[in-house]
Write a structure and sequence with these properties.
8 strands, two-stranded antiparallel sheet, DNA polymerase, domain 1, alpha/beta
Length: 217
């Protein structure tokens, strides 16, 4: 039995693709760039807001990122106001969290989304204090795939890597969990596919949230 589960946010706990697309499209529009298809953002996200905007610009021809500062500033402003745009938990997430809490298992979030917006999303959807630890991207902690955020959470919980399961939907998540020494579980309802999760050595891969209980209880 595991003592805690660390969850990725975007593509794992919550479907945030509409909000990411809305804000990034609005930001690149200041340079006259056309919006992207929703599915494009499945591969732009996962490495933090700055990398998201870099990918958006490079794929529109701005290889030298000459417009980065202007676009990133707009993105941060728009995202601060619209990070909850059409955001919802995936089916099965609420029952999963309830079961984990009933079993006395701690729950935490580790996201490359900026810390303030990570807190906003989690507390809006699940309530203040529902998660034991919320950890978004902070300037003094290396972002995923560095395991630094995992170690910060473990310190707060008083646990070791062997005590936890790490659930995410991308290669970044699997690399993060593996680097920390955690048991990694890939989520197929998120932004990426089974092949990516397998290639990044997920210990298990699940098709719906409640299947996680088979590996933690």
């Amino acid at each position: 039995m595991k003592k805690a589960v660390i969850f990725d946010l975007d593509g794992t706990l919550t479907d945030t693709l509409d909000s990411i697309k809305y804000c990034a499209d609005a930001a690149i529009a200041v340079c006259g760039y056309a919006p992207y298809e929703k599915d494009d953002y499945k591969y732009f996200v996962g490495e933090g807001a700055a990398r998201l905007i870099e990918k958006c610009l490079r794929n529109r021809g701005d290889e030298k990122l000459e417009n980065f500062d202007k676009v990133f500033a707009v993105y941060k402003e728009v995202f601060a106001e619209n990070c909850m745009y059409n955001v919802r938990p995936y089916d099965g997430i609420r029952p999963l969290l309830s079961r984990l809490k009933e079993a006395g298992i701690k729950i935490a979030v580790l996201s490359n989304k900026p810390h303030a917006e990570t807190i906003d999303v989690i507390e809006t959807l699940f309530g203040k204090g529902y998660f034991d630890v919320i950890h978004g991207q902070k300037p003094d902690v290396e972002r995923k795939p560095s395991p630094a955020g995992v170690f910060c959470i473990l310190e707060q919980l008083g646990l070791s890597a062997q005590d936890i399961a790490y659930l995410g939907d991308t290669c970044t998540d699997m690399q993060t969990g593996k680097s920390a020494g955690a048991f990694t579980v890939g989520a197929l309802w998120g932004f990426r596919d089974r092949k990516e999760l397998e290639e990044n050595h997920a210990d298990e891969i699940i098709e719906n949230p409640l299947q996680l209980l088979d590996y933690v209880l």
